[in-house]
């Protein structure tokens, strides 16, 4: 048996002239200036502490109004899952409109049935007590309860 080996033809090799290679490579003298500009821009945008506190009290009142309006006449059903999602989105959108864009908002809404049951909710996080905060609201009617928590974390 004979083995065939593949050999590329000489004409398939690309020829690059020295002139084209020089044009493709940026000069070394511009690289340090570009890096320095990027660092300056980053330092100008970087704010380790917010210049405005998050309006927790106002957001709490807004949260209370949205939840009370939506859930006062509602009875517990499997459709409460979709209601919780929509409620969470509307709370988060309303809070975004009241705050600066540097805050990350996490909204958690839990809706449950009131029928001799107990619920325990916990959460853990690492944050800065100077800039980060949360607000919560607990709603109850004859048929259900809703726990709404909005976590607010400052993005550096």
From TrEMBL:
Region Disordered: start-end pairs: 1-33
A single GO molecular function term of this UniProt record: dynein intermediate chain binding
Single GO cellular component term: cytoplasm
InterPro entries, per database record: Tctex-1-like, Tctex-1-like_sf
GO biological-process terms attached to the record: microtubule-based movement
Pfam families according to UniProt: Tctex-1 (PF03645)
Family the UniProt entry places it in: Belongs to the dynein light chain Tctex-type family.
UniProt-recorded name of the protein: Uncharacterized protein
